[in-house]
Write a structure and sequence with these properties.
This protein is an alpha/beta fold. Helices cover 40% and strands 15% of the residues. The protein has a four-stranded parallel beta sheet, sandwiched between helices. A hairpin with a 4-residue loop joins strand 1 and strand 2. The radius of gyration is 26 Å and the shape is elongated. The protein starts with a strand and ends with a strand. Bound molecules: zinc ion (ZN). Zinc ion binds next to loops.
Length: 432
């Protein structure tokens, strides 16, 4: 399997199965409900893990939670820890509701303070960092290769975290002294304070996997400064750190006015799940290559829903054939997923399998992406089945107005009634 790496700027081959393949994907800063764009690295990480395991790898995914940060202090003055705890629960609930399972580890920055402090001490001891009035900064000039990930030239790096006391405008904070208005702080050799953002991921990734691991992921907006600084910190201690850097494209169109009528412009993952359902959300992501940007809005959700319905309708037909004798066409799917995890090609293949009535393979393939539910035909509850039976009787008696009323009642209960030729003449389908 090959994946494109931002660091090497080329496709890189994974080691052969069973690996291991250890993946660290940067997670959310928890101060509000995650929006649909925040869900993309989560979905990508879970899908890659599922496919690697299917391919015989020992694959592990760690996805961190940034629960101490300026954004959290600003959003909840005096109660930042409470907000972070609540928003962490929201994130875990909303991502769990995508139906993809959960990562193997979900470390929180505030649980990693001892590792973070140790990491900073080692950087200070090695001459790669220095303390100024309770802050500690990374000495960018000590890293000859700085800019290796983002492609910035070392002498043209954008200034980070302005402070006149820094040796060099490029230097970035590893530890920040406690300031008025910041209601959380921890003891350290440099006084009370809290970690910088970048050091937490170097520390948590290495806590999980040791000094070298296979894949580091996150949104393209994290390349600079977050990931550039993570690499600098870890390489400064002689650690190899991540072998492949996967950066997913951004979800666009989230800030615009009147972007989504259906969502009332609330683009939280929660609202997308409640309004459109998890299958439509997953289909939205499946249709775009992970490295490419995708625009979000009602039109693409409508398209995604049409595809969800097409697969569900396919499985409503009685699928015939000896299932035990059916061959899973794994090689066809591997040909596109092993080539930089091309999910739009996988989706095209699923449609081709639908046309070829390769239903056993299709059910298996959709299941890898959390869409196995499209192949399950739900049994309607007794009261809905009763309404459908009464509607059949009304139609037989040519009481079409009564039949329409019953159809509306069935719809209100969350079901569609479809007329078919086989007995009993209708089929109940859960509305998506
Ligand atoms: Zn991170």
């Amino acid at each position: 399997m090959r994946l494109y790496s931002t660091l090497s700027r080329r496709l890189q081959e994974l080691p052969p199965p069973p690996g291991p393949i250890r993946m660290y994907f940067c997670g959310p800063t928890v101060y509000q409900r995650a929006h649909i764009g925040n869900a993309r690295p989560f979905v990508l990480g879970m899908w890659v893990r599922a496919w690697l395991r299917q391919s015989g790898y020992e694959a592990t995914l760690v996805h961190n939670i940034t629960d101490v940060n300026d954004k959290i202090y600003d959003a909840a003055p005096g109660a930042s820890a409470e907000l972070a705890a609540r928003a962490t629960e929201w994130y875990l609930q909303d991502t769990a509701d995508l139906g993809l399972g959960m990562p193997d580890g979900l470390p929180k920055a505030t649980d990693a303070i001892p590792s973070i402090v140790r990491f900073i001490e080692q950087l200070v001891d090695a001459g790669h960092a220095y303390a100024v009035e309770g802050d500690v900064y990374f000495r960018v000039a000590s890293d000859q290769g700085y800019g290796r990930l983002s492609g910035q030239r070392p002498d043209q790096v954008e200034e980070q975290e302005p402070n006149a006391l820094k040796e060099d405008p490029r230097d970035f904070a590893l530890w920040k002294a406690n300031k008025p208005g910041e209601d959380t702080a921890w003891e350290s050799p440099w006084g009370r304070g809290r970690p910088g953002w970048h050091i937490e991921c170097s520390a948590m990734a290495e806590d999980a996997f040791g000094p070298v691991f296979e894949i580091h992921g996150g949104g393209l907006d994290l390349v600079f400064p977050h990931h550039e600084n993570e690499v600098a910190q870890s390489l400064a201690l002689g650690h190899e750190f991540a072998q492949i850097w996967m950066h997913n494209g951004m979800v666009g169109g989230l800030g615009g006015e009147k972007m989504s009528k259906s969502l009332g412009n609330d683009v939280s993952l929660r609202n997308v799940l409640d309004t459109w359902g998890r299958e439509v959300a997953l289909m939205f992501f499946l249709g775009a290559h992970w490295r490419k940007p995708i625009d979000f809005g009602d039109d693409v959700l409508v398209q995604a829903k049409a595809q969800v319905d097409a697969f569900r309708n396919f499985f409503l037909e009685e699928r015939s054939g000896d299932e035990a004798g059916e061959q899973i066409l794994e090689d066809e799917l591997a040909a596109v997923l092993d080539d930089d995890f091309n999910t739009p090609e996988a989706l095209a293949l699923f449609h081709a399998w639908r046309d070829r009535e390769e239903w056993v393979s299709l059910r298996w393939g959709l299941g890898l992406f959390g869409l196995g539910s499209l192949a399950e035909v739900d049994e309607a509850p007794a009261e809905v089945a009763d309404l459908a039976e009464r509607r059949r009787e009304a139609r037989a008696a040519k009481d079409f107005a009564g039949a329409d009323r019953l159809r509306d009642e069935i719809a209100a209960a969350g079901w569609d009634v479809r007329d078919v030729s086989e007995p009993p003449g209708y089929r109940l389908v859960r509305r998506s």
